[in-house]
Amino acid sequence: MDDNVRYCTECGRELAPTDKFCPACGANIDDMTKESYSASPQTGIGYGCATNSPANSDGLKTLSYLMLFWGIIGTIYGIYTIISAEASVENAVNMLKDMDLWEDYLALGYTEETLKTITYAEGACITVSGVCALMAGHFTFRGEKYKIAVITCTVATIAAFIGIITLLVGIFVTYRLTQYKSAFKS
């Protein structure tokens, strides 16, 4: 056996001489001393299957919880927005009229119907984002169907374009999900 070959002590993956982090589980190689490198792949936790790595397991669980949390909140909020659109728009129009701003909105081409359509579209986008996040969270939690998880997470991100925070979190979660490809069973 080649003495220069090293294996990650977290997941058992073979490491390249230039690796700073394990490509399978993300363990910091620089923190390991030469003596702590696994001399053979059998001594690494989860040898032969990076999905057993504690780092992958914890990372996927955290991502799935984030997705499931947004999925529940987004779906409920989206449905609520659709259901309450008429009352919300009526309240907004009355408030604008009280502040003598409604005429300015009419001059811009906004009508009550336009505002209702915008509110319905917003609710639909948030609902789609929430449902897709629930699907992505489900597949991520189970560690199955990587492509479907990434696609539904991406759709959830795109549908959440309405809020800058939800968009940025969605981009981050989708990016992190792509980093855990090796942890998926299928």
Describe the structure.
This protein has helices spanning 54-83, 85-98, 102-107, 112-142, 146-159, 164-179; strands at 6-7, 14-15. With 186 residues, it is an all-alpha fold. Strand 1 (6-7) and strand 2 (14-15) form a beta hairpin. Helix 1 (54-83) packs antiparallel against helix 4 (112-142).
Biggest sheet architecture: 2 strands, antiparallel
Q: What integer is the average pLDDT?
A: 82
Write down the oligomeric state: single chain
Q: Which descriptor suits the 3D outline?
A: elongated
Low-pLDDT sequence parts: 39-55
Count every beta strand, where a strand is a DSSP E run of 2 or more residues. Answer: 2
Rounded Rg: 24 Å
Instruction: Give the helix/strand class.
Output: mainly alpha
Span from first to last CA?
Answer: 32 Å
Q: In what order do the strands lie side by side in the largest sheet?
A: 1-2
- Helical residue percent? 55-70%
The percent range for strand residues is: under 5%
Number of helices: 6
